[in-house]
Amino acid sequence: MQERRTCRKVTVGDDRVGRLGIGGDSPVSVQSMCSVFTHEIDTCLAEINKLAAAGADIVRVAVPERKDTEALAEIMKQTPVPIVADVHFHYKRALEAVEAGVHKIRLNPGNISDRDQVNEVIDACKSAGIPIRIGVNEGSIIERKDKQKRMEELGAYFEGHRSGHLLAIMIAKLEEYLDIFAERDFHDVVISAKSMDATLVIDAYTEIARRFDYPLHLGVTHAGTRETGSIRSIAALGTLLANGIGDTIRISYASDPVYEVEDGVELLCSLAMRDRTGIELIACPTCGRIQVDLFTLVEEVKKTLETEITVPMKVAVMGCVVNGPGEAEGADVAVFAGNKRGIIYVQGERVANVKEEEILECLLAECTSFQTRILNGEATLGQKNVEIIPPDPIGELGSGEDKIRSGDVEQITIGKT
Ligand code: SF4
C-alpha cells in the first residue's frame, strides 16, 4: 500500500447530520446515489435511510426538474447523511438546490459549460459554504464536431496509450473548467473523471492526481450489473486506493444501490481503510473434498449473523481439515466440516463436534455467546496466539476413513515404501 496522496480538504454536512471531510486527513468515504425520483419525498428518504444504514457516508440525488429541487427542502430536514445534488444541463437546478440547503453540488463540464452560468453556481456555493464536484464522464465529454481530427490531435498527448485521446480530453476539460473556479478563487472542489473502462479510470485518476491537489471522487461509470460491475470497479478503485489515490468512492451498478454501498464498504474494509462494524466472514470455495452442503450453510450463516451480530468478529466456515484449522486459528469463531459433521472452535478452543444439520444452530449460538462475552469485557476480539491441533482427518471427522476401510483407497504411512 502506498502512502495516501496529500490534497486539499472540503467539508460536507451541517450541524444536524454532522460534518464529513473529503480529502486531507479524512478517512475515505463511501457514496451512493438514489435510484428513485427525488420528488417522491417519502420514497427518496426511505432509500437515503436504507443507504445510510448500509454504510453510505454521503448520498447523491438527481434533480432534473424543478419539482426535484422543491422536494430537496423537505429531504434536507430529514436526511441522516450529507446530500449531494446531481445537476446536468440546467444550471438553475444547482442554484435551486443550494437554496434548498443541499450539502454539495455536482456539475458536469460536458453539459454545463457557459461561463456566466458556472460563475453563478460558484458564487451561490461560495455564499452557502458548500463544495462542488466537477464530474467529468467519458460518455458526456466526447466531442462530436471534427471527431476524427480532434481524436488524433488529443491522442498525441498520451502517445501509445490506447485511449490517449480520451485521457487528454478528460484532462483538458478539467483544466479548462478549473480555470473558471480559480478565477473566482473558489477551491472547495472535488474532482472525478469516470469511464466504464477500468484501465482508463486508473490512468485518468493517476494523471489527475499528479496535476491537481483537489480531493478525488473515484468511480467506474456504467459498470453494468453487480456481477461485472463489481470486478471493473474493484479492479480500478482497489488499484487507485492501494496507490494512495482517492478520497471518496462510489461504486455504481445497474442494480439496487444498497449493493454499491455494501461493496464500497467491503472494499475499504479489505484495504484496512475502514473498521468493520459487523462480522467478517471467511469461507472456503469448496472442492472435491467437501462432505457437507457448505454453500447453503455459508449463506445461512451470513444472513443470520449480519442481523444478529454487531461486534466485528471474524467467523470462518471451512469445508474440511485441509485449510480449516489454519483459518480457524485467525478467526474468533470457526467451523470446519468433515463427513456430515462439523467441529466448532471459539478462539482456538474446541467447543463442539456436531452433525451437519446442527452446525448452523450451534455456530450461531457460539457467535451470540461470544458476542455477549465481548460486550461484557470477558473476551477480546482477534485474540492471537491461538493454535489448533487438527483432528485426525481420516478418523474423527470420518473423512476418508470409510474409504480406507472399504479398500477404495490405500492408507499411506509416511516413511513406509
Ligand atoms: S477447506 Fe477443504 S473443502 Fe474447502 S477448499 Fe480447502 S481443501 Fe477444499
Task: Give me some keywords for this one.
single chain, 417 residues, elongated, binds iron/sulfur cluster, 2 domains, 15 strands, alpha/beta, eight-stranded parallel β-sheet, TIM Barrel
Structural write-up:
The protein has about 425 residues and is an alpha/beta fold. The protein has two domains: about 10-270, TIM Barrel (Alpha-Beta Barrel), CATH 3.20.20; about 280-405, 2-Layer Sandwich (Sulfite Reductase Hemoprotein, domain 1). Helix content is about 40%, strand content about 20%. The protein has helices at about 40-55, 65-80, 90-100, 115-130, 140, 145-155, 165-185, 200-210, 225-240, 255-270, 295-310, 325-330, 355-375, 400-405; strands spanning about 10-15, 20-25, 30-35, 60, 85, 105, 130-135, 190-195, 215-220, 250, 280-285, 315-320, 335, 340-345, 350-355. The strands form three sheets. An eight-stranded parallel β-sheet has the order 8-7-6-5-4-3-10-9. A five-stranded mixed β-sheet has the order 11-12-13-14-15, sandwiched between helices. The protein has a two-stranded antiparallel sheet with strand order 1-2. Helix 3 (about 90-100) packs parallel to helix 4, helix 6 crosses helix 7 and helix 11 (about 295-310) packs parallel to helix 13. The mean pLDDT is about 90. The structure holds iron/sulfur cluster. Iron/sulfur cluster (SF4) binds near residues 284, 287, 290 and 320.
